[in-house]
Amino acid sequence: MIRRSILPRLEQALSQRPVVLLHGARQTGKTTLVRSIAERNPKGRYVTLDDATLYSAAQENPAGFLSGLTATQEPQPANLVRGRSFEPVVIDEVQRVPELFRAIKLSVDRDRRPGRFLMTGSANALLIPKVSESLAGRMDLVNLWPLSQGEIERTQEAFVDIIFSKGLPLRVKAEQDSAGLFERIARGGYPEVFSQEPKWRSSWFESYLTTILQRDIRDLANIEGLAMFPRLLRLLAGRAGSLLNFADVSRGLAMPLTTLKRYFALLEATFLVRTLPPLFTRTGQRLVKSPKIYLTDTGLMTQLLGVDQTRLARDPVLSGPLVENFVVMELIKQATWSSTRVEMFHFRTAVGREVDIVLESPSGDLVGIEVKSGASVKGDDLKGLDALKEVAKSRFHRGIVLYTGQEVVPFAENIHAVPLSALWQWSEG
């Protein structure tokens, strides 16, 4: 079993809140992780609503179903149990029966002990009204994304914390060439794909998308026209790293704008796509206010585009957006467990000077990251970082150009070119 870097964060949440929801896309390892927690606790119990019998019981009588699961939990005042080990009832794929959330709310209102319920969901709970309304203030949300490169390499990445520190490490064990990077991109991070030979990936991803369409999206919205979702995903894969323009996408698919926005919301809810909002600043400079669009796994993205690592190696126009998408998602994964809590944005002026990724710390410090798929960095590659520095002024902490070269190279004060493999090579200790 691969150790997930989010585990300490998940255990901390269980020690503090009565309800914890671990949510993320299907096949990211949620079940394996929560079962391991339940099995370590003698009074922990695991059930999955993918089981037809359990699903029916929960749907027909949510309160009675929950009462049976919590029969072994002994209510005690919360101030007497702080710091004790948690004994959670684990409910897998809880979004399949939203009616359970009201029953959980009533149970938690009677007994606020931390660690009572650990749930998983393959849909974003914040986008399900019955969840957000029922458990507001009672539930902690923890995201589980596909495997990060550090998890695959068995290292604890600390890239996010390091780039906000005072200085940067001057050495990185860089990959010898870009072939290794493109293999990582084509493989993606789903645990089952990671363990399979490349020739089986296409069939796995095809089955994966079918499952999401037939299960998760149908659970969220009873809609027709599911055949449009793969077309929409392929179009979005081809526009990854670009500004999201709904009107343009609507024309490309000949789909009504209202329908497109509804479908896009479902893709977000099932963790297949992710947007990066623009950075707003209190200056007179005009900035682009549209978000950028990304897919949450580059393995799925390469399958949708019909390309492999060999094609990526010889087509820089195609590889550039995939490399950027790869970096964005690696940072999003690390942000879920880094000590430095960050928000992520993109930066673009009205005249086209841009920075692919901007991370903001709670203190307001900004780190700008430009992503280049090439092995060299030129002065022109720094124009976006210079624009960000001009706008951010004292908030500008550091600028980094991630590239496929071998060395950490200083270009200016607090601006460096850094090998892309630092994302998973810069680790704790």
Structure keywords:
single chain, 429 residues, alpha/beta, Rossmann fold, 6-stranded mixed β-sheet, 20 helices, globular
Structure description:
β3, α6 (100-110) and β4 (117-121) form a beta-alpha-beta unit. The protein has 20 helices and 13 strands. The protein is an alpha/beta fold and 429 residues long. It folds into two domains: 7-143, 3-Layer(aba) Sandwich (Rossmann fold); 149-425, no CATH class. Residues 76-84 have low confidence and may be disordered.
Q: Give me the count of strands.
A: 13
Multimeric organization = single chain
Shape: globular
Class from secondary-structure proportions? alpha/beta
Enumerate how many helices there are, as a single number.
20
Helix content estimate = 40-55%
Strand content: 15-25%
Terminus-to-terminus distance: 23 Å
What's the structural domain tally?
2
Low-confidence stretches: 76-84
Widest sheet, order of strands: 8-9-10-11-13-12
Largest sheet: number of strands, sense, barrel closure: 6 strands, mixed
Give the topology.
Layout: H1 7-16, E1 19-23, H2 30-40, E2 45-48, H3 52-60, H4 62-69, H5 78-81, E3 89-92, H6 100-110, E4 117-121, H7 129-134, E5 139-143, H8 149-153, H9 159-163, H10 178-187, H11 191-194, H12 201-220, H13 228-238, H14 246-253, H15 257-269, E6 273-276, E7 292-295, H16 298-305, H17 309-314, H18 316-335, E8 343-348, E9 354-360, E10 366-371, H19 383-392, E11 396-403, E12 409-412, E13 415-419, H20 422-425
Helix pairs in contact: 3-4, 10-16, 13-16
